[in-house]
């Protein structure tokens, strides 16, 4: 009976331990896998990131705040569980003269959505470029975020490269800013307990077959 219970428990967890990953994080296949929004362009071949193509986001100039960038679904409910770790990050770069204006900023982040998967809940930011960030500098951001009960109850998790425009300079003023991004990654690492349970279940199965 124990063998059956273990195997059943492992099967029930199978959907939650399958790793989910974003695709085409370096834009080597164009914009495949990504959804573009707001004032953003690309991907383009640029020299900022050692040969990787990149996208650029710069706001929409249609009121504040507004948002632009690229997004991709990382996982839906059933593909993650409490205790899982999401490892995510990427690179950002701002050219001289195009640093974000005043309170504008650009983020590499996870967005957690609820309800039918489109009710915004909260964001977790791995890295941010602001008006005070150094220009002509590649910033590499990495973060491991462990899902608590609230995060694990989300319907959908998206990976986002997002320029947040809260300030627009007057006519003839400076640039409102633009930020390049590429080499994004995001993957869900199962909680150690989930992996251990599958290991025990697999051992039980081998014993039963033996």
How do you describe this structure in short?
By secondary structure, the protein is α+β, with helices and mostly antiparallel strands. Helix content is 18%, strand content 40%. Helix 1 (2-17) packs across helix 3.
How far the N terminus sits from the C terminus, by CA atoms, comes to 16 Å
Which spans have pLDDT < 50 for at least 5 consecutive residues?
1-18, 200-208
What do we call the CATH topology? Jelly Rolls
Q: Kindly report the name of the CATH homologous superfamily.
A: Galactose-binding domain-like
Strands side by side in the biggest sheet? 1-4-9-6-7
User: Number of domains in the coordinates?
Assistant: 1
Broad structural category = alpha+beta
What report would you give on this structure?
The chain is α+β, with helices and mostly antiparallel strands. It has helices at 2-17, 149-152, 192-209; strands at 35-37, 40-45, 53-57, 66-76, 85-93, 105-114, 119-129, 138-146, 156-165, 179-189. It has one domain (2-195): Galactose-binding domain-like (Jelly Rolls), CATH 2.60.120.260. 18% of the residues lie in helices and 40% in strands. The protein is globular. The relative contact order is 0.27.
């Amino acid at each position: 009976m124990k063998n059956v219970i273990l195997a059943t428990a492992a099967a029930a967890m199978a959907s939650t331990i399958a790793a989910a990953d974003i695709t085409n994080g370096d834009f080597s296949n164009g914009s495949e896998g990504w959804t573009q929004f707001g004032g953003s362009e690309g991907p383009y071949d640029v020299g900022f990131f050692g040969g990787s193509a990149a996208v650029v986001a710069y706001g929409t100039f249609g009121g504040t705040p507004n948002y632009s960038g690229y997004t991709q679904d990382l996982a839906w409910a059933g593909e993650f569980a409490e205790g899982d770790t999401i490892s995510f990050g990427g690179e950002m770069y701002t050219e001289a003269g195009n640093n974000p204006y005043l309170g504008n900023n650009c983020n590499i982040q996870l967005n957690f959505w609820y309800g039918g998967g489109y009710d915004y809940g909260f964001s977790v930011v791995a890295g941010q470029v602001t008006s005070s960030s150094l220009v002509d500098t590649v910033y590499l951001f990495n973060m491991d975020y462990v899902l608590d009960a609230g995060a694990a109850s989300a319907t959908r998790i998206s990976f986002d490269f997002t320029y947040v425009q809260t300030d627009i300079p007057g006519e003839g003023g400076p640039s409102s800013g633009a930020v390049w991004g590429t080499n994004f990654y995001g993957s869900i690492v199962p909680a150690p307990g989930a992996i251990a349970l599958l290991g025990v279940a697999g051992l039980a199965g081998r014993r039963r077959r033996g």
